[in-house]
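WARN  no MSA supplied for this record, continuing single-sequence
INFO  ligand: magnesium ion
INFO  echoing inputs
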Amino acid sequence: MPHSSEPLNLIFDADDTLWDSNIHFLEAEESFVAAVTEAGIAAEKLEICEMVRRCELEIIKTQGYGRGPYLAALHNAVDLLTELEEFRALIKAEVERIGRRFLERRCELLPGVEPTLKELVKRHKLLLFTKGQRQEQMLKLERSGLAPLFSQVEIAAEKNLGAYLDLIDRAMLDRQRTFMIGNSPRSDINPAVKAGLRAVYIPHPHTWVLEHEELQSNEGVTIVTSFPRLLELF
Ligand SMILES: [Mg+2]
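INFO  complex generated
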């Protein structure tokens, strides 16, 4: 790890790296399962979740990642779970209620994030690289109070190799001096390493199942157990 006085570029993921996010989806899903079951639709929890997952993957193709798309997926799941109009109406009203809370929720910063970033910004350049819908992500960043700490904020539809190469170009990043930091092997670590960056993986216990992936290589990847540990590296 280059512990020199020269500043590094530290690129941060946002959801489940800086603040809690996926836990809100899990809670919304839990409420959805309860609403479906209470409406009297005889489906196993696993079956309902499977249906939601399928609708989610379908919606992502056209609307991308985010809370709005997730609610649309829940509505579609209702249509697949029952053909009875009165059941549909009942559960969809509940989805609306779940949705209002889900969209309004403030994302809590993970422990130590704010003081750690405030320390790191004194000696390094901090960037934010997140995926999802621009409006949703910008609103969360605004509410977090962390926006002034980042010199650049980039939002991509998907964080794949191409997106990293674009970012490196656009921000004119020196690969040797740039680290990607995040909770998702699939979106933060593997494509960043493939693009020639080094990476710091901070596992989060509630990482979204669709972000799960094996680390493709340990080379250039450091694993830390909590956000404040970054101060030992940088
Ligand atoms: Mg994340």
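Residues 69 and 127 are 26 Å apart (CA to CA).
INFO  checksum written, moving to next record
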